[in-house]
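Might you be able to consider the sequence and fold that I enclose below?
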Amino acid sequence: MALVVFLRGVNVGGHRTFRPTILARELGHLDAVNIGAAGTFVFRRPVTQAELRSELAARLPFETEIMICQGRDILRLVSENPFADEPLRPDIGHFVGVLSRRPRSAPATPICLPAGGEWLLKILGRDGRFVFGLYRRQMKAIGHLGTIDRLFGVPATSRSWSTITAIAKVLGRD
């Protein structure tokens, strides 16, 4: 089964920038597919996670957290659709946080941030290494995404639900 890679904190605000399309081309021997500009890739040829991590680290011009998931886990998450009961609204986005590993313990959900007043980020639940929730389309909401690390005790990176579904479409072509 394919592997999915999420790079943490790349191509954001001019920091740790690189060209994902070029990296995907360099890793063409692994049938690499770039999804967007945030450091999300699907690798459709067989490779171990250790080999893939090594190949990525050797080609990236900086160090970053590399989160690797099995493609089947993404397909399962999409098929279960944790947002089925959440209506689409122009002012609210759906996100998935990818944890670097399963946390030893996890807080009870839902969690609204900030704790008082109108929420900017709402964590609805967790499924293994995936945390899913909602955010208000406001700049202040982005700052609360970093709270996921502290709440779950492991590094995390976030992607929109549309990115996750785009990954599933690529995986469906296997």
